[in-house]
Amino acid sequence: MKAAQIRSFGAPDVLRVTETETPSPGAGEILVAVEASSVNGHDTIVRTGGMKMVAGRTFPIGVGLDFAGVVVTTGSGVESYRAGDRVWGMVHPRKRHTVAGAAEYVVVSADRLSPAPVGVSAVEAASLVVAGSTALIALRDSVRLTAGERVLVRGAAGGVGTALVQLAQAMGGHVTALARDRHAAALRDLGADEVLDYGTTTADRIGPFDVIVDTVGSELHCYRSRLAKGGRMVTVGLSGPALAAIAASSIHGSRRIRTFSANPGSAVLDEVADHVTAGALRPVVHRVYPLADIVTAHEAFERGGVLGKHVVAVSA
């Protein structure tokens, strides 16, 4: 089978699509024929060597955190899935993978996938696995958004950002999206009550907000100051400066900056699928690339500035 793998740490051109053996499922595992996988920040961190403690230094290393596809076969002890079932899921983000989601086949534990939502294509489903689950965990578990609260989504045009806008609106929040002005109409269509141009809007000119969800990872102390009394803030855009700001916020004052590493199991994926089925969460795909062009997909992801997700189509 064909699989995208990292042959050394570095820029996107270290990626190679190579021939490797098709894996076989063990007890409690499922073999999935992958139809699509999206590009996520986790993938670029692994590729550049930022997760050596997890991925190790032995090559090749598989790339592709998420996937959507069809069950091929199951290992012993798996009774909830059968060949032909359409599924979506994630490989474990804190484990080493020689083959991951950007491959023709992937093996995962049964508790790391769930039935794919009905009515969306594999490409559309793949665009929502990480984005939808991250947004759901951020809003429901981390900041515990309640109806009527004022929400700022920073980096609202990205994959996670577009999911945040939609789910925050579905939960009854009054949503302000901070993004490039050219994406304003699309973000309003997704549910934003207000859209601010991040190029001309500074933190000291906005707010206060009950909830701030950041996907960028910079200037966190500036945005933290825009929290109302009792406000909560979470960032999913981790970097060195972001980690420093998070640490400082836990020491100084009550308005702590939270963060988390999304590692959803079947229950979270089921809930995201329910939101998709209900029409509360729509896929936003910027561009689709064939597996052979995964280097180009990673290059485009790192340039940023687009609305929605970069998705790799593995099979028709």
Keywords:
Quinone Oxidoreductase, Chain A, domain 1; alpha/beta; six-stranded parallel β-sheet; 316 residues; seven-stranded mixed β-sheet; 16 strands; Rossmann fold; single chain; 10 helices
Largest sheet: 7 strands, mixed
Termini separation: 15 Å
Strand content: 25-35%
- Give me the strand/helix succession: EEEHHEEEEEHHEHEHEEHEHEHEHE
Report the uncertain regions: 242-247
Number of strands: 16
Q: What is the assigned CATH homologous superfamily of the largest domain?
A: Medium-chain alcohol dehydrogenases, catalytic domain
* CATH architecture label name of the largest domain: Alpha-Beta Complex
Classify the oligomer: single chain
Question: What is the third-level CATH name, the topology of the largest domain?
Answer: Quinone Oxidoreductase, Chain A, domain 1
Structural class by secondary-structure content: alpha/beta
Topology:
Blueprint: E1 2-6, E2 15-19, E3 29-38, H1 41-48, H2 52-55, E4 61-62, E5 66-74, E6 86-90, E7 105-109, E8 113-115, H3 122-126, H4 129-142, E9 150-154, H5 159-170, E10 174-179, H6 184-190, E11 194-197, E12 209-214, H7 220-224, E13 227-235, H8 240-251, E14 257-259, H9 266-278, E15 285-290, H10 294-303, E16 309-313
Parallel strand pairs: 9-10, 9-12, 10-11, 12-13, 13-14, 15-16
Antiparallel strand pairs: 1-2, 1-4, 3-5, 3-7, 3-16, 5-6, 6-8
Helix pairs in contact: 4-5
